[in-house]
Amino acid sequence: MGIKLEHNGISGITKQLIERMDRAIITQLQMLGEELAAYAKDNHTYTDQTGNLTNSIGYAVVRNKEIISFGGATQPGVSVDSALKVVNDMLSDAQSSYSLIIVAGMNYAAYVEAKGYNVILPAELKAKKDFPTAMNKIINKVLSKISSNN
Hints:
Number of strands: 3
Number of helices: 5
Oligomer: single chain
Mean pLDDT: 84
Largest sheet: 3 strands, antiparallel
């Protein structure tokens, strides 16, 4: 999922509009990332014995394969470090545009999910539903600004 903004050789009001849209997309993706990380943590079906798996659930907002924002993973140390490692491993597969990556950083997360327990699958399904709505909000705001300036 992604949106790509191009602004080579553009100046003036159009450049300002693109910069504002860039900030709006990043903000919207951060809000969606926070919501999805919380949703995954609230809707897991495994027994959370140590808290590490739940605390390693996080998100990254990526633009052009570069991490712009990281959050959601709540316990400094192994959980956050593991989540960041997974995000960094996924950067090569990210689009050359905007991406929202939701991760469970512990190396056994896939095993737990393969056993039939929800780890981040509910958040992934919610993202597929909510992402277009989030981007449409931005597009509608931009169109509204453009029409009010004309």
